[in-house]
């Protein structure tokens, strides 16, 4: 029955992640001749018949298409790009995402020279040089006036004349491209284009609301922060510092108040944590090629330890059992381990998002506040315990003294 109870609890928590996800904003056609790209000039006065203002990441795409040999001269330009960043533009017939794409990458090396190369993005997005599924010639990049530009000639085929394209930017570290930001603009920098007709669509810049992936990311963070990162520490604080009030009970419960509050708080935290973990798995399935192994491994370890800890609510020896002391050590050790891992992984999540300093500072403030409360309660608890022991010792002495007088009086009377 105990095993079934744990399974039922896990099932109930997992049901929280089955809510349907809202659909991503539908792409909208980009405007034509009045776009800003028409007014921009190239450093060497290159001319392109078609251009488009990409509605994300302040970027522009230009091309000339030659139907005779199915080639296209393209230029991808990204204004306001610091020299510490890389940029990329890619074709991806398989989907509107960077993973699985055929990409052109450019960055400025420490010597100030521009580097441009091709990379097939598959699996972990290492962005290492490699050959693409189609021919690329005349590939080069330049940096002028704070603007980075990639030039190339693409050898297309019938499957690539109308296809998906993706563009992106991110930081350089140690001479290598690193993970880009996960802001809404970065996650929605995709669209479709037709080289022959000049038709381009991209994700809407207004009226689309938040994307389904961004919503999942936010819910994942909120559930984990509240469950693992706030309620778990509060539950531990309740258990440790309310024990001095053993006679206080809730709703005529057979257990003291601290026990009921601690158990309720930890069960709710566990359910929220399981739901957040499940959404994290969903995020991983819709973000092929993006792998945050440290964050994921800590999350898995956290869930396993928490599941074992929940079983402690069911398989708990009686207070007088000879193994109760070992159970207590195990229960406390796992509890503190969960709290430490939770806080570490939440800050790891903030690190992954490359920003969101407001929420990071807010959570840090909550943890500091809980730590301050715990410190004050620790002092208060010790004062109560010391005072109680003195009071009990005084009463014992008085009872002993009174009892002795009564015996002497009785002896005298006899």
From TrEMBL:
- Which positions are annotated as binding heme b? 220, 262, 295, 331
Transmembrane annotation, as ranges: 221-242, 263-285, 297-314, 326-350, 362-385
Q: Where in the cell is it found?
A: Membrane
GO CC terms in record:
membrane
Which InterPro entries is this protein grouped with? AIR12_DOMON (IPR045265), Cyt_b561/ferric_Rdtase_TM (IPR006593), DOMON_domain (IPR005018), UCP037471 (IPR017214)
Cytochrome b561 domain segment(s): 176-386
Keyword Transmembrane helix carried by entry: yes
Q: Where is the DOMON domain?
A: 57-170
List the Gene3D superfamilies hit by this protein, alphabetically. Answer: 1.20.120.1770
Please classify the protein's predominant subcellular localization into one broad category. membrane
Which top-rank group of organisms is this from? Eukaryota
Keyword entries, A-Z: Electron transport, Iron, Membrane, Metal-binding, Signal, Transmembrane, Transmembrane helix, Transport
Which residues belong to the signal peptide in this entry? Answer: 1-25
Which cofactors are reported in the record for this sequence? heme b
SMART domains (UniProt xref)? B561 (SM00665)
Which is an annotated Pfam family here?
A: DUF568
Listed GO MF terms: metal ion binding
Cofactor comment text: Binds 2 heme b groups non-covalently.
Quote the PANTHER family the UniProt record gives.
CYTOCHROME B561 AND DOMON DOMAIN-CONTAINING PROTEIN
The protein's name is Cytochrome b561 and DOMON domain-containing protein
